[in-house]
Amino acid sequence: xxxxxxxxxxxxxxxxxxxxxxxxxxxxxxxxxxxxxxxxxxxxxxxxxxxxxxxxxxxxxxxxxxxxxxxxxxxxxxxxxxxxxxxxxxxxxxxxxxxxxxxxxxxxxxxxxxxxxxxxxxxxxxxxxxxxxxxxxxxxxxxxxxxxxxxxxxxxxxxxxxxxxxxxxxxxxxxxxxxxxxxxxxxxxxxxxxxxxxxxxxxxxxxxxxxxxxxxxxxxxxxxxxxxxxxxxxxxxxxxxxxxxxxxxxxxxxxxxxxxxxxxxxxxxxxxxxxxxxxxxxxxxxxxxxxxxxxxxxxxxxxxxxxxxxxxxxxxxxxxxxxxxxxxxxxxxxxxxxxxxxxxxxxxxxxxxxxxxxxxxxxxxxxxxxxxxxxxxxxxxxxxxxxxxxxxxxxxxxxxxxxxxxxxxxxxxxxxxxxxxxxxxxxxxxx
Length: 431
Prior knowledge:
This protein is α/β, with parallel strands linked by helices.
């Protein structure tokens, strides 16, 4: 018996050693990145001192993970800075244009509850206290300024037309516009529909949107108030969603980012007429970036905007060294919707330096670095660095495939500047 116990202890020790060695082996980049780099710490700019050039019209704030609360909090923090220091008047988030109309009505002083409004948005990642806080602050700010200084809340995505169609239907009723047929459109967004739309049905939806658009324009005449402008935009967005659904699976990503860039341009043009002409975007790093994070991403929203607006678009990426993200679980065994907190490390040696900075985060503008004054750091940001990039889908085996949640590129290829966090925590969405 004693011999068996000794053998069992030896086997246990061997298993522990092998497990530790395997863990270190799989995460050797994390180990290598875990050391202080004096030059980075000295060049780190406190988060509160983020400075955006005056010529910028669009600030794109990214997030390395949709499911980490620090990135949702940063939306509000950066928005406050831009509003108070740079006279920005609008935030545009990665959500359907129609999905955000209720949120905008609320921040203008409309009825409702901020938490209930965000909980009704299509993406579960926004069903959080942090997102509700953004609406609450904007509403409070708007109550203290003149109408021409008010802030607006938009969405730049085009995947979820349900709320937009509801807004459109309500608009038609409120304005006494009759005679429009939305049969095919209502079938399109019917949650009980089990069969995919035929090409004929898709064409009919687009035809109905054309007819509705004409009816709205005829009724409004030259008097296009904000609701009328949004109603017309919804008809266009629904058509874009139809076209998106007809794309080949390999082309859908490129089509989506190009369409989102079009929506951003439309919103910027509108804000030039009714606001300050400066907007803040908030979305995943992969969309905000100036180029794709992989060979499969040929088009990014940020890339289209950078090509169109040049230095007037500022891509502000984010990363973290370690932490948790609340993500939808990928499972081939069940269709049941499930979310889980996943702990990951990014092996980003620059983000690790936030450990030595007050607040455990810092900002870095890449344009301010030079090979003469910041030789080592300049080389780092212009060389391949392991960075985190978690989407809305994860499974346990991804831990063995680092490329599923990390990118290995030069930070300057993707962004004009970055905010680095040492550690992040998971959001707590309601669903």
